[in-house]
Amino acid sequence: MISRNDAGRTPGSLLCAILLVASAALPVHAEESPPAPSCALKQMDTDEPFDLRRFRGKVLYVDFWASWCGPCVKSFPFLNALDREFRGRGLEVVGINLDEHPQDAVTFLAGHPAGFRIAVDPDKSCPRDFGVQGMPTSYLVDRQGAIRFVHLGFRPGEADRLRSQVERLLNE
Questions:
Q1: Does the domain formed by 33-171 have CATH 3.40.30.10?
Q2: Burial of 50: CB neighbours in 10 Å, binned 0-12, 13-18, 19+
Q3: Mean pLDDT, range 29-41, rounded to an integer
Q4: β-bridge pairing 59-65 and 49-51
């Protein structure tokens, strides 16, 4: 699990900073698209179990985030807008919290509410299975369950490009 060390910094804080500077969407060609891992998650607010396979047939935006992540604060308004705009067309936004202490996520969400589904990973295997390298990392998964785009970091200036990638997958 990604957490803070004694100095108050995250073990991956340097990587996170590098990813912010180099924040980019890495396209995956359809013929080379790996399948999204199957993750056994729990809905944060209800503790209801679910698996990402449940969303097969929808476009899935999987966002790994943590309360200590500055860019995550900036991404939540965008993710809320994306969810409102495209949910009716088949988009499902799932934010997977990686905080070591659940109360940190609860506090974060009190100040930055999410209109989209927030999940936790009880066995902590989902970020490893996806290959998460820093916060936030997002994966756009097509209707067939293949990862088509990987986004490292988040900058508000990327919103139009991210939105167009979602639309592209929704139109396929």
A1: yes
A2: middle
A3: 81
A4: unpaired
Strand-pair category, 49-51 with 24-27: unpaired
Q: In Å, how far from its chain's centre is CA 104?
A: 17
Summarize pLDDT for 107-120 with one digit per residue, the tens: 999 999 999 999 99
Contacts 24+ apart (CB under 8 A), 153-159: 153/16, 153/19, 153/20, 153/22, 153/23, 153/71, 154/23, 154/71, 154/72, 154/74, 154/75, 154/78, 155/20, 155/23, 155/71, 155/74, 156/74, 156/78, 158/23, 158/25, 159/78
E strands in the chain: 24-27, 40-43, 49-51, 59-65, 91-97, 117-120, 137-141, 147-152
- The rounded distance, in Å, linking the Cα atoms of 42 and 30 is 29
Is the Cβ–Cβ distance between 62 and 94 less than 8 Å? Answer: yes
pLDDT digits (tens, 9 = 90+) for 67-100: 999 999 999 999 999 999 999 999 999 999 999 9
Q: Give the model confidence (pLDDT) of 6-19 as tens digits.
A: 333 333 333 333 33
Task: Please state whether beta strands 91-97 and 59-65 pair in parallel, antiparallel, or not at all (unpaired).
Answer: parallel
